[in-house]
Design goal:
82% helix; single chain; 1 helix; 0% strand; rod-shaped; 49 residues; mainly alpha
Length: 49
């Protein structure tokens, strides 16, 4: 009897690592966008002074 691909432990571990790496990349991207917005906002505040 053939095992399903989703129940294969090697596939599960590779899939979990992929999900972790992908979520870390999204997290760093969001943090970078927020930092850029904060820099722009700070620059605009300084220019009004």
């Amino acid at each position: 009897m053939k095992k399903a691909l989703l129940t294969n432990p090697a596939f599960r571990y590779v899939f979990e690592i992929f999900v972790i790496v992908f979520s870390l990349m999204i997290s760093f991207f969001i943090q970078d966008v927020l930092n850029d917005r904060e820099k722009i906002e700070l620059k605009n505040k300084i220019s009004f002074l």
